[in-house]
Here is the input.
Amino acid sequence: MTIAIGLLMVVAAAAYVAAPFFTNAPAGLDGVPSVSASERQKLERQKLEAYSAIKELEFDYRMGKLSEADFTGIRNKYMAEALDAIKVLDTAKTAQTRERAENRRQARIAFCPACGRSVPQRAHFCPACGRQLKEEAVA
Here is the structure.
């Protein structure tokens, strides 16, 4: 009986750990796929590796180890890799920034909790009673 329970726990843990590999990446704001932390690290690593490869390539070219045609072709390949990674990272960052701004706009106070007067959208203090308005307290 204890073997069956232990086996069931191992299977459940393995299924929990493997679940992200079998699901699609969730779409963020405007259908832009959100980037997970591991995907972000992978893209950052790809960008840094491309940068270091370009740096080493330029060094080899200056040392006379590469012809200009080889240098240009390989450099363009690494630049395309770096630009692809940067594009995905920037798109995800822009989508996250928009999503945060939208969430913040929705959390703004519409009425003063103390006096009940309507408050302008960007106000930090109530124009009637002068009470400080906090974004956490949504009316």
Observations:
- Confidence is low (pLDDT under 50) at residues 27-32.
- The chain is about 60% helix and 0% strand.
- Residues 68-106 form the longest helix (39 residues).
- The radius of gyration is 26 Å.
